[in-house]
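pinned: reference chain
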Amino acid sequence: MLADIESGVELTRDLIGRDHLSQRVMTAMREVPREAFVPENMRHAAFRDGALPVGHGQTISQPYIVALMTDLLELGQDSSVLEIGTGTGYQAAILSRLARQVYSIERIPALAQAARQRLLEMGYDNVETRCGDGYQGWPEKAPFDGIIVTAAAPFIPPALLNQLKPGGRMVIPIGMPYSHQQLKLVTRDENGEIGTRSLIGVAFVPLVDAD
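pinned: its structure tokens
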């Protein structure tokens, strides 16, 4: 899996603006057991570099995308990070190895409950989850050093921009469901100015509001 991630970086280096991912991210990818976050009947494919279905019309992203999006956040050990789209909890588990506190929102109750239980049982105790509308973020816990969105939105949700700290970074796929999407890096500088950069084409499930 790690070799596939490194190959993905090499192939996209000119687009993503880096020729390697941080050692902290690669260590987290190695140490978090991906097979524990996929359905039992898919565990034989857990380490393939592709997305896998996890039920309820949702997927777990391919390892390269998980690693890249995580790396782009440039989290420090004292960072607070918001994830939109908990899914099975895999991305949250990766983030938990890199940040002080992870907050993760999932709109599908069954997935949210299962992920919460799984993360607790596996000892990822710096992850707090809730079921809710990802478009609205988690204002009570804001602002965040990093925000990662693991479903594609047609636009950058204003509430998420408002919850990003000065100096913070957001990684989000923007575009139509399953096609014509671009992974974007959004930054807020110390003066509050927003910058965006398009990186690579991606294919994510859509970000749907709680209604």
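why pinned: The chain has a mean pLDDT of 93. The radius of gyration is 16 Å.
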